[in-house]
């Protein structure tokens, strides 16, 4: 029976991305720390979403149809693992852990969400160590550094038109707008609002433990990843009443990336064959983007997301000494109802993944593909929440390629 290297060799290739429609992209993958011997790898993947939606029925002349709301994106990851001795190993990795590429087409004056967009980029560097306490038990953990920035724009009729400003030059608060309108409105309008979050580095850690039985390729690993706090320098701009605009600089917006727990189980069941099951929980309910001037104008949060639970089951088989393959099914379940932020207009997914690897000497070539059926959702705005569009029957496909070298 082959060792656990069979599945480790295929993990990054078949699981090219954690989520095609949401923000979580790399799932804090640290499989490299369990590789046998000294090893280095570099991988690239491309995800191509097909995300479309239609304005909800309303008094508008027609229901606008949004096309290509989620843009394609490319991920590049690398890793190197080195054994200091027969008990202690180190690994250094880099991967894009979170991101967003959302853009609604359409005229902001004739559609609910036309002109709304969100672009966010992050990249995480991790330095990990693994120490074998016995042949069966080990602990692992290390430090993470995460670089992030972003830009968000809100536009369309769902955001109510230009912002109303007071005599001090600041947007009227939600309470002031309510008072002026006699309670007809409970927040200011923010069509044309834009916020830029400057590049920032944040720091966190990982801790975990594993139980292994090498004779049957059994491994159970549990890993906790801490949240990372970013304090972004912030520039907010509003489209004001009377055709004016107003920009506010010098602010700071604190954002926590989610803490998470990964549970990975695998076991040999026959010669050259393993089955595996993975679970991931991400605490997205603590992820908030809440710039000062936006909060004052609306009394609401700019971005909030529900917790996610991701399950994967699959099988891997080595057909020849050089060639191995795997297949899996993934289910991503997001808490709450189908009302979502327009900046993440799908809700969970079901995915089917296949991948393979071919070894020539010390070099291993891996490739994989994953097809996503993205969950239906209704982007909402306002307080209380009002559904503005229907997003149904969306999908995505992701391709990945990796080269690994044992030394």
TrEMBL record:
It comes from the Bacteria. One of its GO terms (molecular function) is long-chain fatty acid transporting porin activity. It is found in: Cell outer membrane. Residues 1-20 form the signal peptide. Keywords: Cell outer membrane, Membrane, Signal, Transmembrane, Transmembrane beta strand. GO terms for cellular component: cell outer membrane. InterPro entries: OMPP1/FadL/TodX (IPR005017). Pfam families: Toluene_X. It is a multi-pass membrane protein. Belongs to the OmpP1/FadL family. This is Transporter. It comes from Meridianimarinicoccus roseus.
